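Protein entry
_____________
===
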Amino acid sequence: MSWAFVAFLLPTASAHAQSFELGVNLVGSHWSEFKGGDTGIGMRLGWKPVAVVGLEAEVNWYPGDFPEGTVPFSDRRVEGLMAVTVGPKLGVFRPFVRLGTGRLRLAPASSLVACIAIFPPPLSCLLADGETLPTLEIGGGLEVALPGPAFLRFDAGDRALKYPGPTLSGGTRQDEAFIGHAVRFLLGGGLRF
């Protein structure tokens, strides 16, 4: 999405077409590098300068150990994203595409993580001390307007995570930083004003 396109649309907006949104999220994701899901809660602040374009800031908190079922390398994660949505309003529905970027902060593991003394270390050992991973998300979703100012929202996307290197990931040596993926789903709702 080009910022020039957004700049082109802004002058055509009438004052009544603009809206602000405040919402809450239930978020789930599945990382390609690790087994198991990750769930969290969050909030989102949005602004629609015109009916078809939205600008958003989102913060999500994942409070549990990750990954589950094995020795966790993180006891909580915080994600911050800035995103652009583009999509028409079709009655009470607004299908949209979404492009966002941000950071995922991994808190260190609450218990000691035993790592084998090899080089390069396994990815979980690199992440156990706490890392901040750059993210890029591409996806889409659907907003459903409810009576009054309320709305529901469903998003699905691919979140690309930039992992540090050198490391061993899935039995493969990564000599430099590399990209992994996490399928991410969001169910939310909020108010428009």
In short: The radius of gyration is 19 Å.
